């Protein structure tokens, strides 16, 4: 047996043990800043070490410093899961290691990216014929939309609600664009009354905002954009995956009129970091914004048109579609629907527990798998409850601020979360 196979078997067994037992570990890392670094040598080894030494240090040095995103009681930010088939596919992608900047540098990964983004478009009920490609993160996808919008409109103003993700503000800042924040209504949706987009390059409507998973009125934004020639970008980084279930499609009303759309498969579609799906209904505008082909990358014209590096900021591209393909094939539409429905059901259960408990309240309507809630107490007390609950290692949750008040968030996204985990989280919170 070769050393590589021995090491491979050990690594795979490690993964299986980890995924099987992750629920027994503290969710939030229990280390202090600098602890992990202090436990590692300051300089690299002079001589090669065996892979087994790395696995040993993974267990002894790195594991105490891991916050476990695969844990069934990881409820912070937007929880995510990397499923087993996608983990294996990630290894295969690393073995092939294509750098897909031109079609010819990796025809298969370039074309599989087209196929998988088409497949997901079908699963989410998007219009046929949109051009899809994969970026690393929604921040990059939104940056790309800002660039394309500014390129085609010649304008320099970006608009989003006060609850649009900070990626919009960061993108606008990096590009030197002016950002206008629009107030939201009582349910944290962007207000469109009196909204003037006449000088706006782009408006970002969010389907599933980060704080509350509220859904902006995309049809009204599309109407305004049609009148003013403004680019409509829809950020469905989290909630987009829910559209695989027809009962949630109401939230995508009007999205068929968008110029671009982002959905992160690495959030709620069982795909390991990173995999941000970016579609556009205006591929030629995207290409004209991004295409820059120096002599050393020139290929025959018909090949150039297929090179995905011409549709976004980055040249070298990973084989991200392989893990997405694994998810789509090994879970299928029904598997994804089952997971989404179960997470929304569990969120509903948690919301019921909160609503039924005197002294606690829901702070926003439950949307998808996110519950925003608080104890009817000061901000400081709510923050202290969260700190104590997280420090227990039993759960990891995060917070936001709504109408000036400190609010706790429980976001479900792990394929391992069960009803028992929801009850345990609630017990921990009430006793914290
Ligand atoms: C609605 C929304 N948009 C964008 C992002 C940024 O995602 P990424 O980390 O992929 O850049 C997030 C992250 O949670 C998000 O919730």
Which compounds are bound in this model?
A: pyridoxal-5'-phosphate
How many strands, what sense, and barrel or not for the largest sheet? Answer: 7 strands, mixed
Unreliable residue runs:
none
What strand order characterises the main sheet?
Answer: 1-7-6-5-4-2-3
Whole-number average pLDDT?
97
Helix percent reads: 40-55%
Cα-atom Rg, whole angstroms? 23 Å
Tell me the span between the first and last alpha carbons: 52 Å
Order of helices and strands: HHHHHEHEHEEHEEHEHHHEEHEEH
What's the number of extended β-strand segments?
A: 11
Structural category is: alpha/beta
Explain the overall architecture.
- The protein is globular.
- With 432 residues, the protein is an alpha/beta fold.
- The protein has 14 helices and 11 strands.
- The longest helix has 36 residues, at 321-356.
- It has helices at 3-21, 35-38, 51-62, 84-96, 107-123, 138-153, 166-175, 218-228, 265-268, 283-290, 301-304, 321-356, 379-391, 419-430, and strands at residues 131-135, 157-161, 178-182, 202-206, 231-235, 260-264, 276-280, 360-362, 370-375, 398-402, 405-411.
- Bound molecules: pyridoxal-5'-phosphate.
- The site of pyridoxal-5'-phosphate (PLP) has 15 residues, from helix 6.
- Pyridoxal-5'-phosphate (PLP) binds at residues 77-78, 137-139, 165, 167, 206, 208, 210, 235, 237-238, 264, 276.
Brief summary of the model shown:
The chain has 432 residues and is of the alpha/beta class. It contains 14 helices and 11 strands.
């Amino acid at each position: 047996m070769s050393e590589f196979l021995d090491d491979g078997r050990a690594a795979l067994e490690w993964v299986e043990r980890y995924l099987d037992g992750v629920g027994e570990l503290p969710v939030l890392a229990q280390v202090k800043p600098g602890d992990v670094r202090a436990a590692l040598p300051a300089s690299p080894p002079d001589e090669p070490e065996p892979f087994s030494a790395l696995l040993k240090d993974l267990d002894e040095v790195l594991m105490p410093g891991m916050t476990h995103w695969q844990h069934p009681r990881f409820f912070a930010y937007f929880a995510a899961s990397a499923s087993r088939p996608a983990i294996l596919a990630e290894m295969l992608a690393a073995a092939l290691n294509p750098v897909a900047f031109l079609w010819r540098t990796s025809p298969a990964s370039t074309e599989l990216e087209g196929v998988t983004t088409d497949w997901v478009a079908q699963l989410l009920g998007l219009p046929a014929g949109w051009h899809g490609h994969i970026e690393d993160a929604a921040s990059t996808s939104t940056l790309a939309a800002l660039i394309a919008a500014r390129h085609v409109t010649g304008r320099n103003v970006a608009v989003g609600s006060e609850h649009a993700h900070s990626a919009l503000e960061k993108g606008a800042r990096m590009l030197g664009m002016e950002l206008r924040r629009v107030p939201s209504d009582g349910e944290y949706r962007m207000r469109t009354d009196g909204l003037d987009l006449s000088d706006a390059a782009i408006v970002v409507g969010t389907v599933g905002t980060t704080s509350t998973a509220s859904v902006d009125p995309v049809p009204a934004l599309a109407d305004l954009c049609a009148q003013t020639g403004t680019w409509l970008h829809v950020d469905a980084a989290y909630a987009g995956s829910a559209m695989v279930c027809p009962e949630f499609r109401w939230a995508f009303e009007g999205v068929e009129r968008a110029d671009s759309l982002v959905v992160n498969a690495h959030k709620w579609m069982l795909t390991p970091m990173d995999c941000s799906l970016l579609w556009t209904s205006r591929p030629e505008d995207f290409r004209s914004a991004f295409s820059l082909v120096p002599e050393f990358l020139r290929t025959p014209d018909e090949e150039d048109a297929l090179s995905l590096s011409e549709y976004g900021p980055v040249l070298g591209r990973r084989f991200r579609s392989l893990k997405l393909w694994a998810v789509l094939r090994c879970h299928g539409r029904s598997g994804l629907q089952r997971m989404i429905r179960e997470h929304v059901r569990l969120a509903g259960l948690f919301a019921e527990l909160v609503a039924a408990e005197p002294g606690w309240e829901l702070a926003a309507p439950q949307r998808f798998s996110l519950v925003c809630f608080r104890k009817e107490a000061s901000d400081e007390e709510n923050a202290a409850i969260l700190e104590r609950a997280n420090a227990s290692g039993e759960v990891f949750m995060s917070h936001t601020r709504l109408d000036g008040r400190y609010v706790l968030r429980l976001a479900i996204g792990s394929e391992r979360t069960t009803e028992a985990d929801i009850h345990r989280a609630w017990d921990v919170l009430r006793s914290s």
